[in-house]
Amino acid sequence: MEWGPKAIAAGNGLEARAQVQWASIDALNGWVNAGTNGGYPVHMSEHTLSTYHDITHAAGLAVVNTAWMRFAAGHRPEKFVQFA
């Protein structure tokens, strides 16, 4: 949130670009699944959605994640309380 706009504004700014890259590494290395037993199918499911429809990955995640949260919250409300 902090470094993305800075990287866009100063495309050659090494510090901002490095911080955005570090954030992407954190996002994709599996740490977000810690303590979940891997129970988050949304990311890979969305790849199929954006393959068949002309949407960005982020837009597809917004759609799929919302639907998945409604479904999963009904089955494991304690995990959503923990998340909150």
Explain this structure:
- The chain has helices spanning 3-9, 14-28, 42-52, 57-75, 77-83.
- It is globular, with a radius of gyration of 16 Å.
- It is an all-alpha fold and 84 residues long.
- It starts with a helix and ends with a helix.
- Helix 1 crosses helix 2 (14-28), helix 3 (42-52) crosses helix 4 and helix 4 (57-75) crosses helix 5.
Mean pLDDT: 83
Query: Between the first and last Cα atoms, what is the distance in angstroms?
Result: 20 Å
Helix content: over 70%
Report the uncertain regions: none
Number of helices: 5
Number of strands: 0
| 3D shape | globular
Structural class: mainly alpha
What are the SSEs and their pairings?
Layout: H1 3-9, H2 14-28, H3 42-52, H4 57-75, H5 77-83
Compact overview of the structure:
With 84 residues, the protein is an all-alpha fold. It contains five helices and no strands. The longest helix has 19 residues, at 57-75.
